[in-house]
Protein backbone atom coordinates (compact mmCIF):
# COMPACT_ATOMS: atom_id res chain seq x y z
CA UNK A 1 0.00 0.00 0.00
CA UNK A 2 1.52 3.30 -1.13
CA UNK A 3 1.70 6.28 1.20
CA UNK A 4 1.61 9.97 0.24
CA UNK A 5 5.36 10.39 0.86
CA UNK A 6 6.09 7.80 -1.87
CA UNK A 7 3.66 9.44 -4.29
CA UNK A 8 5.36 12.82 -3.79
CA UNK A 9 8.79 11.25 -4.37
CA UNK A 10 7.59 9.84 -7.69
CA UNK A 11 6.43 13.23 -8.99
CA UNK A 12 8.91 15.01 -11.28
CA UNK A 13 8.09 18.39 -9.73
CA UNK A 14 6.81 18.83 -6.18
CA UNK A 15 6.59 22.62 -6.31
CA UNK A 16 3.32 23.86 -4.86
CA UNK A 17 2.23 27.01 -6.62
CA UNK A 18 0.41 29.59 -4.54
CA UNK A 19 -1.37 32.91 -4.80
CA UNK A 20 -2.33 35.50 -2.22
CA UNK A 21 -5.95 36.29 -1.35
CA UNK A 22 -5.62 39.80 -2.80
CA UNK A 23 -4.30 38.60 -6.18
CA UNK A 24 -6.67 38.91 -9.09
CA UNK A 25 -8.36 35.83 -10.48
CA UNK A 26 -6.83 36.73 -13.85
CA UNK A 27 -3.32 36.51 -12.37
CA UNK A 28 -4.21 33.17 -10.78
CA UNK A 29 -5.52 31.84 -14.09
CA UNK A 30 -2.37 32.97 -15.89
CA UNK A 31 -0.21 31.12 -13.36
CA UNK A 32 -2.34 28.00 -13.67
CA UNK A 33 -2.10 28.10 -17.47
CA UNK A 34 1.65 28.74 -17.40
CA UNK A 35 2.27 25.81 -15.04
CA UNK A 36 -0.33 23.50 -16.58
CA UNK A 37 -2.11 22.96 -13.27
CA UNK A 38 -5.74 22.99 -12.15
CA UNK A 39 -5.44 24.41 -8.64
CA UNK A 40 -3.49 26.92 -6.56
CA UNK A 41 -3.24 27.10 -2.82
CA UNK A 42 -4.08 30.49 -1.38
CA UNK A 43 -1.57 31.42 1.30
CA UNK A 44 -1.00 34.31 3.64
CA UNK A 45 1.48 35.20 6.41
CA UNK A 46 4.43 32.87 5.92
CA UNK A 47 2.65 30.24 3.85
CA UNK A 48 -0.39 29.77 6.08
CA UNK A 49 -3.05 28.08 3.93
CA UNK A 50 -6.24 30.14 3.83
CA UNK A 51 -7.92 28.57 0.82
CA UNK A 52 -7.63 26.84 -2.52
CA UNK A 53 -8.53 28.23 -5.95
CA UNK A 54 -9.44 25.73 -8.65
CA UNK A 55 -10.71 25.65 -12.20
CA UNK A 56 -14.04 24.61 -10.73
CA UNK A 57 -14.10 27.77 -8.58
CA UNK A 58 -13.52 29.83 -11.72
CA UNK A 59 -16.22 28.09 -13.72
CA UNK A 60 -18.86 28.32 -11.02
CA UNK A 61 -18.05 31.60 -9.28
CA UNK A 62 -16.74 33.82 -12.06
CA UNK A 63 -18.00 32.74 -15.47
CA UNK A 64 -21.49 31.67 -14.39
CA UNK A 65 -22.03 34.71 -12.14
CA UNK A 66 -20.95 37.27 -14.72
CA UNK A 67 -17.90 38.49 -12.80
CA UNK A 68 -14.69 39.50 -14.51
CA UNK A 69 -11.38 37.80 -13.80
CA UNK A 70 -9.42 41.05 -13.75
CA UNK A 71 -11.70 42.79 -11.25
CA UNK A 72 -12.25 39.87 -8.86
CA UNK A 73 -9.83 38.96 -6.10
CA UNK A 74 -9.02 35.33 -5.37
CA UNK A 75 -10.37 35.71 -1.80
CA UNK A 76 -13.84 36.37 -3.23
CA UNK A 77 -14.07 33.04 -5.05
CA UNK A 78 -11.62 30.64 -3.37
CA UNK A 79 -12.75 27.65 -1.35
CA UNK A 80 -11.78 28.59 2.22
CA UNK A 81 -12.10 25.21 3.93
CA UNK A 82 -9.14 23.20 2.69
CA UNK A 83 -8.87 19.52 3.48
CA UNK A 84 -5.34 18.11 3.52
CA UNK A 85 -3.46 14.88 4.05
CA UNK A 86 -0.24 13.87 5.78
CA UNK A 87 2.79 11.99 4.45
CA UNK A 88 1.88 8.71 6.19
CA UNK A 89 -1.63 8.44 4.74
CA UNK A 90 -2.29 5.82 2.09
CA UNK A 91 -3.41 6.34 -1.49
CA UNK A 92 -6.65 4.55 -0.61
CA UNK A 93 -7.33 6.98 2.25
CA UNK A 94 -6.69 9.90 -0.10
CA UNK A 95 -9.00 8.46 -2.77
CA UNK A 96 -11.72 8.01 -0.16
CA UNK A 97 -11.33 11.61 1.03
CA UNK A 98 -11.36 12.92 -2.54
CA UNK A 99 -14.36 10.82 -3.58
CA UNK A 100 -16.42 11.64 -0.51
CA UNK A 101 -15.75 15.38 -0.78
CA UNK A 102 -15.62 15.59 -4.60
CA UNK A 103 -12.07 16.97 -4.62
CA UNK A 104 -9.39 16.84 -7.28
CA UNK A 105 -6.47 18.23 -5.27
CA UNK A 106 -5.17 17.68 -1.75
CA UNK A 107 -2.38 19.65 -0.08
CA UNK A 108 0.10 17.59 1.92
CA UNK A 109 0.97 19.05 5.31
CA UNK A 110 3.49 17.70 7.81
CA UNK A 111 4.45 19.37 11.10
CA UNK A 112 2.25 22.35 10.18
CA UNK A 113 4.29 22.87 7.00
CA UNK A 114 3.08 22.56 3.42
CA UNK A 115 5.23 19.87 1.77
CA UNK A 116 3.37 19.15 -1.46
CA UNK A 117 0.14 18.67 -3.32
CA UNK A 118 -1.35 15.55 -4.85
CA UNK A 119 -4.03 15.34 -7.50
CA UNK A 120 -6.56 12.71 -8.39
CA UNK A 121 -4.34 11.98 -11.40
CA UNK A 122 -1.37 11.24 -9.14
CA UNK A 123 -3.49 8.77 -7.18
CA UNK A 124 -4.92 7.07 -10.25
CA UNK A 125 -1.41 6.68 -11.70
CA UNK A 126 -0.18 5.16 -8.42
CA UNK A 127 -3.10 2.76 -8.07
CA UNK A 128 -2.76 1.58 -11.70
CA UNK A 129 0.96 1.00 -11.13
CA UNK A 130 0.24 -0.98 -7.97
CA UNK A 131 -2.39 -3.10 -9.72
CA UNK A 132 -0.05 -3.75 -12.66
CA UNK A 133 2.63 -4.97 -10.24
CA UNK A 134 0.17 -7.31 -8.50
CA UNK A 135 -1.03 -8.72 -11.84
CA UNK A 136 2.58 -9.37 -12.92
CA UNK A 137 3.29 -11.13 -9.63
CA UNK A 138 0.16 -13.29 -9.99
CA UNK A 139 1.06 -14.16 -13.59
CA UNK A 140 4.54 -15.25 -12.48
CA UNK A 141 3.02 -17.36 -9.72
CA UNK A 142 0.51 -18.98 -12.09
CA UNK A 143 3.24 -19.72 -14.64
CA UNK A 144 5.42 -21.33 -11.99
CA UNK A 145 7.88 -18.47 -11.55
CA UNK A 146 9.19 -18.71 -15.13
Automatic annotation (TrEMBL):
It holds the Pfam family CBS. InterPro entries: CBS_dom, CBS_dom_sf, CBSX3_CBS_dom, Diverse_CBS-Domain. It comes from the Bacteria. Keywords: CBS domain. Residues 12-69, 78-133 form the CBS domain. PANTHER family: CBS DOMAIN-CONTAINING PROTEIN, CBS DOMAIN-CONTAINING PROTEIN CBSX3, MITOCHONDRIAL. This is Inosine-5-monophosphate dehydrogenase. The lineage of its organism: Bacteria, Pseudomonadati, Pseudomonadota, Betaproteobacteria, Burkholderiales.
Amino acid sequence: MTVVAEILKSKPDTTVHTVRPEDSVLDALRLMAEKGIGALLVTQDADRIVGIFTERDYARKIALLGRTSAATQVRDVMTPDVLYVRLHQTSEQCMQLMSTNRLRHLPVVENDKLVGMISIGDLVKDIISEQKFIIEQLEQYINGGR
